[in-house]
């Protein structure tokens, strides 16, 4: 990725997908995002808000090794953290709907 920011999000997401072509990396992202969703929901619904601290650890704990070990690239989080986080959830939903293949 160049040092320029990619704007708007509708242009960033297609770029994001090109940085997630390795199947194992996508699976790791999917697992991490799924865990984040469940831990976030459990923390909110149970009133155990301290569980929310685990969300970044779970999400990035799966995503970053996927990039370093399998995809062999630098996560987009380092350049565009908000769009990257948004893209994690969009890709997760696209995987559920079959729009992005694992």
Any overview of this molecule?
With 102 residues, the chain is mostly helical. The chain has a domain at 27-95. Helix content is 67%, strand content 0%. It has helices at 9-18, 23-46, 54-71, 81-96. α1 (9-18) crosses α4 (81-96) and α2 packs antiparallel against α3 (54-71). The longest helix has 24 residues, at 23-46. The chain is globular and about 40 Å long.
Keywords:
102 residues, mainly alpha, 4 helices, 67% helix, 0% strand
**Structural class by secondary-structure content:** mainly alpha
Between the first and last Cα atoms, what is the distance in angstroms?
Answer: 23 Å
List SSEs in N-to-C order: HHHH
What level of helicity do the residues show? 55-70%
**Unreliable stretches:** none
The largest sheet, given as strand count, sense and whether it forms a barrel, is: none
Please specify the SSE layout and strand pairing:
Blueprint lengths: L8 H10 L4 H24 L7 H18 L9 H16 L6
Helix pairs in contact: 1-4, 2-3, 2-4
């Amino acid at each position: 990725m160049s040092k320029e920011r990619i704007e708007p999000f509708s242009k960033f997401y297609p770029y994001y997908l090109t940085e997630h072509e390795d199947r194992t990396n996508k699976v790791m992202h999917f697992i991490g995002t799924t865990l984040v969703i469940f831990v976030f929901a459990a923390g909110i619904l149970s009133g155990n808000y301290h569980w929310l601290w685990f969300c970044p650890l779970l999400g990035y704990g799966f995503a970053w090794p996927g990039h370093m070990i399998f995809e062999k690239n630098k996560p987009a989080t380092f350049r565009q953290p908000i769009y990257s986080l948004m893209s994690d959830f969009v890709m997760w939903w696209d995987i559920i709907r079959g729009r992005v293949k694992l």
